[in-house]
Design goal:
Layout: E1 2-6, E2 12-16, H1 24-32, E3 37-43, H2 44-60, E4 64-70, H3 79-91, E5 99-104, H4 106-118, E6 125-129, H5 132-138, E7 143-148, E8 151-158, E9 163-166, H6 176-193, H7 195-203, H8 210-227, H9 242-251, H10 258-275, H11 281-293, H12 304-312, E10 321-329, E11 332-339, H13 343-349
Parallel strand pairs: 2-9, 3-4, 3-5, 5-6, 6-9
Antiparallel strand pairs: 1-2, 7-8, 10-11
Bound molecules: nicotinamide-adenine-dinucleotide (NAD) and glycine.
C-alpha cells in the first residue's frame, strides 16, 4: 500500500492500493470510528459498478449506509443536484457525527465535497476516486464546487477530506476517453514539476505504471497544497492549462470534457510561451507531442473572440488581472500576472484565430 500524508487545515492520508475498495469500511472506521451513517454519493454509472461493494465493505465495518445516486456528468454539477443531495441527507437524518463518501470522478468529488462542507456547517467526508483524473488530482487538496450558468466552479469552498481511498483496479472499467482525460492532468504535473517524470510518461504508457503515476502526482499535489492550501500563491501552478481550458469547456457547453480542455489549454499556453520567447520551440514541441501521444487534442475551432469572452468570466480574474501559468522548460513553469485585456493577445500567440 502507498500512503501519502497530506498536511493542511485537516491532515489526512491518501491510500493507494489495488483491491482497496473492499477494505474501505475498515479504513474509514480506523480514521473516523464506526457506528455512523455513511451516505455514499455516486453518479449512475459508478453506482451501478461499485456502490454495492463499497456499501458491503462499510456495512461489514459497522456503518449504516444510504446511497444518493444522480445521473452523473458535468451537466449535473449544479446547484439543483447539490440541493437534491442536501435534501437527501436531511431526509435520512444525517448528523454531524455521520459522513459522506464520494464514490466517482471529479464531478462527484466536487459536488459531494461541497455538500459535506456546508451540510450542518460541515460533516466528515471521504473521497473514493474512480477516474484517473480524480485519483491524480481532484480527490486531493480540498477544492469543492458546483458550476453556475456563468462558468465553472463558481460556488464552492476549500474543505479537506478526512481520507482518500484510491483503488486503481476501479480504473479498469474507465472508458478510454475518460482515461485520456486523466492523462491530461498527469502530463500537467510532469510539465510543472519533473522532467524525469515527463520522460517516464514518454517511455511507458500511464496504464502500465498507474500506481507509480498516481503516487507521483499526489505527492506533487501534496507539496503544493501544504505550501499554499488556499490558492493564493504557488498552488496556482496547478492551473496550468486551466484558464484557457475552462474557456474551451464553457464555449462547448461542456461537450469538451475537463481533461481535453486542459490539454488544449496547455497547448495554447505552450505555443504562446514559445512565441514570446519564454520557452524554446523545442519545449513547446515536446509538450504538444506528449499530449498527442496520449491521444489528447491540441487544437480548438473556437474563435479568439469566443474564448476571450469565456476566459474573461473566469473566477480567477481579480482586480482586472489573471494569473497565467506559463512553461519555461519541462518541469518548470512560472506564474505570469497579466491584465485581463491581454487575454486576446495571449490566445492569438497561442495559435487561436
Ligand atoms: P467525471 O466525474 O464526470 O467522470 C467522468 C465519467 O467517467 C463519468 O461519466 C462517470 O460516470 C465515468 N466513470 C467514473 N468512474 C468510472 C469507472 N471507474 N468506470 C467507468 N466509468 C466511470 O469526470 P472527471 O474527469 O473525473 O472529473 C472532472 C471534474 O473534476 C470537473 O468538473 C473538474 O472541474 C473537476 N476537477 C476538480 C479538481 C479539484 O481539485 N477539485 C481538479 C480537477 C478537476
Ligand atoms: N486542481 C487545481 C487545484 O487543486 O488547485
Amino acid at each position: 500500500m502507498t500512503t501519502i500524508h497530506v498536511t493542511a487545515s485537516r491532515d489526512y492520508d491518501v491510500l493507494v492500493q489495488p483491491g482497496l475498495l473492499d477494505d474501505a469500511g475498515a479504513q474509514v472506521a480506523r480514521v473516523l470510528g464506526t457506528g455512523r451513517t455513511a451516505a455514499i454519493v455516486a453518479g449512475a454509472t459508478v453506482a451501478g459498478l461499485y456502490a454495492e461493494r463499497l456499501s458491503a465493505s462499510l456495512t461489514r465495518a459497522g456503518f449504516r449506509t444510504v446511497t444518493f445516486t444522480y445521473p452523473g456528468g458535468e451537466h449535473c454539477k449544479t446547484l439543483a443536484t447539490y440541493a437534491a443531495l442536501l435534501d437527501f441527507l436531511a431526509a435520512h437524518r444525517l448528523s454531524r457525527s455521520d459522513l459522506i463518501v464520494a464514490l466517482g470522478g471529479g464531478v462527484t468529488g466536487d459536488l459531494a465535497g461541497f455538500a459535506a462542507a456546508t451540510y450542518q456547517r460541515g460533516i466528515p467526508f471521504v473521497q473514493v476516486p474512480t477516474t484517473l483524473l480524480a485519483a491524480v488530482d481532484s480527490s486531493v487538496g480540498g477544492k469543492t464546487a458546483v458550476n453556475l450558468a456563468s462558468g465553472k466552479n463558481q460556488v464552492g469552498c476549500f474543505y479537506q477530506p478526512s481520507l482518500v481511498l484510491c483503488d486503481p483496479d476501479t480504473l479498469r472499467t474507465l472508458p478510454p476517453e475518460e482515461y485520456r482525460n486523466g492523462c491530461a492532468e498527469v502530463i500537467k504535473y510532469a510539465v510543472l514539476r519533473s522532467e524525469t517524470f515527463f520522460d517516464e510518461l514518454r517511455a511507458v504508457p500511464v496504464s502500465a505504471q498507474v500506481e507509480h503515476v498516481i503516487a507521483t502526482c499526489v505527492a506533487m499535489k501534496r507539496d503544493l497544497v501544504a505550501a499554499d492550501e488556499f490558492d493564493r500563491g504557488s498552488r496556482q501552478l496547478l492551473n496550468l492549462g486551466h484558464s484557457f481550458g475552462h474557456a474551451v469547456e464553457k464555449c462547448s457547453d461542456y461537450a469538451v470534457p475537463h481533461g481535453c480542455g486542459v490539454a488544449i489549454g496547455m497547448a495554447i499556453i505552450a505555443r504562446a510561451a514559445a512565441k514570446r520567447g519564454i520557452c524554446t520551440e523545442d519545449t513547446c514541441a515536446q509538450i504538444l507531442a506528449l499530449l498527442r501521444q496520449y491521444g489528447l487534442p491540441t487544437e480548438t475551432d473556437f474563435t479568439c473572440d469566443a474564448l476571450t469572452d469565456a476566459a474573461r468570466s473566469d473566477k480567477k480574474i481579480a482586480d482586472g488581472k489573471l494569473h497565467l501559468i506559463v512553461p519555461e522548460r519541462i518541469g518548470y513553469c512560472r506564474i505570469e500576472t497579466i491584465p485581463a485585456v491581454d487575454i486576446r493577445a495571449w490566445l492569438a500567440d497561442g495559435g487561436i484565430a
